[in-house]
Amino acid sequence: MPPCLIFNKTELKKGTGIMKNFVQPGHSLECVAPSGGVTSGEPVLINNLLVIPSTNADVGEKFAGHIDGVYSVDKATGAAWAIGETVYWDNSAGKFTKTATSNYKAGVAGAVAASGDATGVVRLNGVGVTQEAGA
Predict the structure, then answer these.
(1) Number of helices and strands in the chain (H, E)
(2) For residue 128, which of 26, 48, 82, 116 is within the disulfide window of CB 3.0 to 4.6 Å?
């Protein structure tokens, strides 16, 4: 028998097939919108998890928050990005940056971006984020 087998989606549903504890693939999680609500496509920090909402949601409403994948996002100007460089989420500015200090490690650059670019491409890590130490 090969070390890995390919199963169809029906076989992977919770309580069916071979994986009795499977819940879902985990690319998005059901979240509750914080104060101010959320806007589709605009990153938001939910506790220690950076998510990209798939829909708009008012405070207290549920929404699907994507935790991995590649997205075009707002980027802090002043630094160029190379593919694969670590990027951080600046929660105060609402932008991704290469500056680690006081920001959250979020993923890597998914494309080259010039220092003056206001947007960049980010590949989210899909893991909880921790704020880096301040200066």
Answers:
(1) 1, 9
(2) 48
